[in-house]
Write a structure and sequence with these properties.
The complex is a heterodimer of chains A (248) and B (261). Chain A is of the alpha/beta class and 248 residues long. Chain A has nine helices and ten strands. Chain B is mainly alpha-helical. The chains are: A alpha/beta (248), B mainly alpha (261). The complex binds adenosine-5'-triphosphate and magnesium ion.
Chain lengths: 248, 261
């Protein structure tokens, strides 16, 4: 479904991706873990063309996205739903307008149907009766959940979650884990979940990939990752300050 | 970015002119593509046009007053008592062709151009522009096209509005000074043509496009937090104001003085 090959990306002098390879299969949930600043957000932005690699190949559903026209790219983008790390709600639009934004553009629905989809999507993330509020009236965690509702409202085939549970209380966070699982089981979506929360990664992921130094250094099932012989992986998943990872 | 590694000023100038040119071409390409963002277009017409009326009214009123005053004084002192009734045509021509377009252009650079840069710049640094893209809205079509079109339509209207206020204020000042109203009016109508007013409005259309494009360009390239937004805002104001002044001269030179060919 998503194939990334030998990706290189620098910002100025800073080399963020250095020959990264990653495959996400159709219908699976892949968790990506890695230190803060290691390039996880940059990685998923490559998948939908928000960031262009300096070199390397990205193939989505059999289509190489390097050289598409805008029109062709539009059809790729509608496959994706992206939850931004900081929600990125449109602050001049109401919650309902935010959630319906993609639905209006990617799908053909009557205004009544759209209203229903908005209510349902907000319901899925545990929010009710806030359709007419503005983003600045929401708490941080509510913003994140509205961002999630916006990303899933038009039923994308692939959902990219950038730290879905950061900034959300533990109970809600686990509800979001359940939501991720449900999206996979009921709607057969392919997911990439960026997370620092290992409990959540073990719960939702079919496979976990660790990003370190601009490369994916290990990929495997939660069990494999837990039993990994790689010391870097071990240090990260157990959160030890001492170990081979020195820079922060 | 260290200053030692930045390219020489002349290269930077061409680079920036190139960026602006590319944005302009993309705007033209997206002009007729669907979906059209009618709602934003109407919002922007309100923001650029209706909400600028008070500022334009004050600017034009005092522009008209001071221009009326100086022209009156000039005629009265240097040509002689009574001649000031002939100043009507000069005042009106000066206002409609030059003074009002410049003043309105400068005020709108400050009020509208920098607001566009601040709004789009904030959207850029909070990833709202990326979100637009991921939700199937092209940022050029969604943000830049409606703003540019709204400015293209509203600036000529604002200038016409400013002309009316300016002309009335200049006339009122002359009346108060005891100028012969009949000769003043007769002279004005004799020498001022519709084309003179249209010249000013054409300038307005050009300024509108330039101000909106600069505001959007600076907004979309904003980087690095609140400070970046501040920089984009100030830059828009300065670049747009300078371009208004430069373009004003060249459009004045380029447009014919009248339409009797
Ligand atoms: N647009 C950009 N311009 C310049 N540098 C950038 C840009 N985007 C990301 N970076 C840099 O790339 C690196 C990786 O950033 P990224 O946001 O992907 O980290 P992350 O792994 O998501 O971290 P976190 O867990 O804290 O969210 C950082 O050093 C960041 O400074
Ligand atoms: Mg991140």
């Amino acid at each position: 479904m998503i194939h990334m090959e030998e990706l290189y990306k620098s910002f100025g002098d800073k080399k963020v991706l250095r020959g990264l390879n990653l495959d996400v299969d159709k219908g699976e949930t892949m968790a990506v873990i890695g230190q803060s600043g290691s390039g996880k957000s940059v990685l998923i932005k490559h998948m939908i063309g928000l960031v262009k690699p300096d070199s390397g190949k990205i193939i989505i559903d059999g289509v190489d996205i390097c050289c598409l026209t805008l029109k062709e790219f539009y059809d790729i983008r509608r496959k994706f739903g992206l939850l931004f790390q900081a929600a990125a709600l449109f602050d001049s639009l109401t919650v309902a307008e935010n959630v319906s934004f993609g639905v209006e553009r990617y799908r053909d629905h009557t205004p009544q149907e759209i209203r229903k989809i908005v209510t349902e999507s907000l319901d899925l993330v545990g929010l009710r009766g806030i359709e007419d509020l503005m983003p600045h009236e929401l708490s941080g965690g509510m913003k994140k959940r509205v961002g999630l509702a916006r990303a899933i409202a038009y039923r994308p085939e692939i959902i990219l979650y950038d730290e879905p549970s950061t900034g959300i209380d533990p109970i809600r966070a686990d509800a979001i884990n359940d939501l991720i699982l449900r999206m996979q089981q009921e709607l057969k979506v392919t997911s990439v979940v960026i997370t620092h929360d290992m409990v959540s990664a073990y719960k939702v992921a079919d496979r976990i990939a660790m990003l370190y130094n601009g490369e994916i250094i290990e990929t495997g099932s939660p069990q494999n990752i837990q039993q990994s012989s790689n010391e870097i992986v071990q240090q990260f998943i157990h959160g030890h300050a001492e170990g081979p990872i020195k820079e922060w | 970015m260290s200053s030692s590694s930045s390219p020489p000023a002349i290269l930077r100038f061409f680079e920036q002119a190139g960026e602006l040119g590319i944005l302009f071409i993309q705007t033209l390409k997206n002009l007729l593509r669907k979906p059209r963002e009618k709602r934003i277009f109407i919002q922007q017409m309100d923001e650029i046009g209706v909400r600028s009326l008070p500022v334009v009214a004050i600017t034009a009123a005092f522009g008209g007053l001071v221009f009326g005053f100086q022209t009156y004084t000039g005629f009265y002192e240097f040509i002689g008592s009574g001649s000031e009734a002939y100043s009507g045509a000069i005042i009106t021509l000066g206002l409609t062709k030059e003074l009002i377009p410049i003043l309105v252009g400068l005020m709108i650079s400050g009020r509208v151009g920098s607001a566009m840069a601040a709004e789009i710049g904030t959207m850029k640094i909070t990833e709202q522009v990326d979100a637009l893209f991921s939700l199937g809205a092209d940022p050029i079509r969604y943000l830049v096209v409606p703003r540019t079109l709204a400015a293209l339509v509203m600036l000529p209207a604002l200038i016409l509005f400013g002309d009316i206020i300016g002309i009335i204020c200049a006339f009122a000042f002359n009346l108060l000074m005891g100028v012969n109203a009949y000769i003043y009016m007769k002279n004005t109508l004799l020498y001022v043509e519709v084309w003179d007013v249209v010249t000013g409005m054409i300038k307005g259309g050009v300024y509108g496009v330039v101000i909106a494009q600069i505001g959007c360009w600076q907004g979309l390239k904003t980087q690095g937090g609140a400070e970046g937004v501040g920089r984009a805002t100030t830059r828009t104001m300065v670049i747009a104001a300078i371009l208004v002044l430069i373009l004003n001269f060249f459009i004045s030179k380029a447009l014919p003085g009248d339409l009797n060919i």
